[in-house]
Design brief:
Layout lengths: L10 H9 L3 H9 L3 H16 L12 H17 L21 H15 L5 H7 L4 H14 L9
Helix pairs in contact: 2-3, 4-5, 4-7
Length: 154
């Protein structure tokens, strides 16, 4: 059996996938005012459902980074009601935020509480176009500067 490489989830890969849909399906979803969030959620759920669980080594060999990456992936899965946490380091952080702003704020607040840091809204907005691994590194750098790293994330 040939193993298919998982697609890295970015806004560009999702747009390409949506463009492959029949035109009627795209028009109907937009007419129902569900165009952006619903389509994004549908594609992300479909991709994650078909994606095998990546080994923890995809996050590197630095134990605190791996630990935080696994915690964050599980938190995003729960926060956004996704079928699993089979995220890849190069997945775009912003593709996982398609529900209302309050749900996203709750996730950021959980990160702040866990690490004892404060994250500005402007920073989070900038992260939406970054690969997930870069966001993880940025958050860990912020925590290290505040001397709140490494915590026990278990």
């Amino acid at each position: 059996m040939v193993q298919v490489e998982p697609v890295v989830l970015t806004h560009a890969s999702i747009r390409a996938r949506l463009m492959g849909r029949p035109i009627l399906a795209r028009v109907l979803s937009c007419l129902l005012f569900l165009c952006d969030a619903w389509d994004l959620h549908e594609v992300v759920v479909d991709e994650l459902s078909n994606r095998p669980k990546p080994p923890t080594t995809v996050w590197g060999s630095y134990a605190p980074r791996v630990e935080f990456a696994l915690w964050l992936c599980a938190a995003i899965m729960e926060n956004q009601q996704l079928p699993n946490d089979h995220f890849l380091p190069d997945d775009e952080f912003g593709v996982f935020f398609f529900s209302d702003d309050l749900v996203s704020v709750e996730l950021i607040m959980a990160i702040e509480e866990l690490l004892g840091i404060s994250i500005e809204t402007d920073e989070v907005e900038e992260w939406f176009s970054w690969p997930l691994v870069n966001v993880i590194d940025q958050i860990l750098d912020m925590a290290a500067l505040k001397k709140h790293w490494p915590p026990s994330v278990g």
